[in-house]
Amino acid sequence: MSSSQELEVTLETLPQILQNDTKVKVAGVDADGVLRGKLMSKSKFLSIAKSGFGFCSVVFGWDMHDMTYFQELKISNKENGYRDLIAIPDLSTYRRIPWEGDIPFFLVSFYDPDTQEPVCACPRGLLKTQLDKFKAHGYDAMAGAEYEFYQFKTPSTDSSDAKPSTAAYLRDNPPHTLPALTEGMFGYSITRPVHNKDYFYEIFDSCAKFKCDIEGWHTESGPGVFEAALEFGQISDMADRAGLFKYAVKSIGTKYGITPCFMAKPKQGLPGNSGHTHFSVVDKDGKNLLARETKDENAPWPDVAHLSDLGRHFLAGLIDGLPYIMPLLAPTINSYKRLVENFWAPVTVSWGLEHRAASIRLIAPPTSKPGATRFEIRVPGADTNPHYVMAAILGLGWRGVEKKMEIKLPPLGKGEDVGSGADQGERLAKNLKDAVDKFMEKGSIAREVFGDDFVEHFGGTRRHEIRLWDEAVTDWEMKRYIETV
Predict the structure, then answer these.
(1) Which residue from 82, 258, 350, 442 has the fewest beta carbons nearer than 10 Å?
(2) Strand order in the sheet with 103-111
(3) How many angstroms separate the CA atoms of 108 and 29, rounded?
(4) pTM of the predicted model, to two decimals?
(5) Residues 277 and 183 sit within 8 Å (Cβ to Cβ)
(6) CATH class of the domain whose range is 137-454
(7) pLDDT tens-digit readout, 418-458
């Protein structure tokens, strides 16, 4: 590591840190979790590092394929001329992109040019707003993320140097013909990664250099499926690293003619891709505040005997609000193909100590150390925006703490699967339309936690997805009806 890289990144040290560079890459996060950015000269970057620069608001006015939303939304629309927002670099996010010649990289956050406040839909801003509620009371939050994802490959070309893009392949071939990186179900295999060892190890090593370190890295059950557990850390940093992990994997994949797929359910009849999120509350010294000092012999259930009062209130808030924030945890049409019975994915409001079938898995003594006490939210898929997911966990949990809410639902019984118990909570939304309706209904918990501006904006973006789906003619329809009706 060079001496310039060891310096604390401040406005004063930036010129020295970038002394050998000519260009800088910057990016912000849109509502779908997609990085939107640009390359700029070093001199330009240094001139805007403090005050920010104009960034077209259309990144919050169009979908992931750059189609403007059917419904004109408040942040960016024809009436305001798709005006610029202010994008301010976050110097703490400095890192270098190892697969792009170590070019310096910074994340930006988006601010309203009139109010100077974070744009309501800016994922980094939304998370900061929720975290500020914690920090005002001397708390902080830690988080971890796990992603499962499929790898698809494009057929080899005559030239070893030319790798056809997935888009080019799909232009002439049906999506379901895209071959998997490897065939068969080989979860936790130590031989399967050897088949593509250069790709497998380059992801691990490059993520370490790119400051989105992987803690555990292995094959998961499914053809060509990998799973990464990212290193646990402070929640804002964790959300950034989770989004950048996807960027790293997709970028490295292009080098090998491989397309990593973070869809929640890429293949019918096979397991889906989860995006489990771990969460804990700490004080300013890093002490875990979810752990109880001594076992509560009078706990309402043995599952929470080692969970603090703050932890119980937090869990109660999660349970109470979970049905109202489903579009944040399952944001696409495809998300709900994963959340079905009998696929080890949660479908009801449920929780339990070390229960992997529940929506909220409590990890606490006696099966873990007190300092590792945490919640694992198992509803999100790999297709989620990590900033929104973590903002939702913070927002719902803090609501429970503020209101001193009590857990209103018994834990999922041992050996009891989701959907089989009479005491379980309500069935979570089965599709995006139902999820959005509950999210946007008058007086919803989502509105209480995030405010009307965010709910109206994000709900509007999801209604755009629903309309596109309603108008789509699928392969299934053609196969089923082309000759028979």
Answers:
(1) 442
(2) 35-41, 23-29, 103-111, 84-97, 53-56
(3) 8
(4) 0.95
(5) no
(6) alpha beta
(7) 554 445 689 999 999 999 999 999 999 999 999 999 999 99
- Give the Cα separation of 140 and 284 in Å (integer): 7
The answer to whether 313 and 415 have CB atoms below 8 angstroms apart is: no
Beta strand pairing call for 277-283 and 258-261: unpaired
CATH number of 25-119: 3.10.20.70
Tokens, residue 73: 């939304």
SS (H, E, C) the chain: CCHHHHCCCCCCCHHHHCCCCCEEEEEEECCCCCEEEEEEEHHHHHHHCCCCEEEEHHHHCECCCCCECCCCCCCCCCCCCCCEEEEEEEEEEEEEEHHHCCEEEEEEEEECCCCCCECCCCHHHHHHHHHHHHHCCCEEEEEEEEEEEEEEECCCCCCCCCCCCHHHHHHHCCHHHCCECCCCCCCCCCCHHHHHHHHHHHHHHHHHHCCCCEEEEEECCCCCEEEEEECCEEHHHHHHHHHHHHHHHHHHHHHCCEEEECCCCCCCCCCCCECCEEEEEEECCCCECCECCCCCCCCCCHHHCCECHHHHHHHHHHHHHHHHHHHHHCCCCCHHHHCCCCCCCCCECCEEECCCCCCEEEECCCCCCHHHCEEEECCCECCCCHHHHHHHHHHHHHHHHHCCCCCCCCCCCCCCCCCCCCCCCCECCCCHHHHHHHHHCCCCHHHHHHCHHHHHHHHHHHHHHHHHHHHCCCHHHHHHHCCCC
Given a contact cutoff of 8 angstroms between Cβ atoms, the answer to whether 424 and 418 are in contact is: yes
Average pLDDT value over all residues in the chain: 93
Tally of CB atoms within 10 A around 320: 21
- Alpha-carbon span 360 to 411, nearest angstrom: 10
Instruction: Collect all residues with Cβ–Cβ distance below 8 Å to 395 and sequence separation of at least 6.
Output: 130, 321, 325, 449, 450
pLDDT at res. 133: 94
The neighbouring-strand residues paired with 24 are 40
CA 378 to CA 112: how far, in whole Å? 34
Name 209's bridge partners: none
Which residue from 106, 109, 115 is spatially nearest to 87, judged by alpha carbons?
109
Asked if residues 355 and 411 have their Cβ atoms less than 8 Å apart, the reply is yes
Provide the residue ranges of all domains of the chain, joining segments of one domain with +: 25-119, 137-454
Q: What percent of the chain has pLDDT over 70?
A: 95
Query: What's the CA gap between 465 and 485, in Å, rounded?
Result: 28
Residue 245 tokens read as: 């992990």
What are the tens digits of pLDDT across the range 256-312?
Answer: 999 999 999 999 999 999 999 999 999 999 999 999 999 999 999 999 999 999 999
- Dihedrals phi, psi of 353, to nearest 5 degrees: -70, 120
Cβ atoms of residues 256 and 376 within 8 Å: no
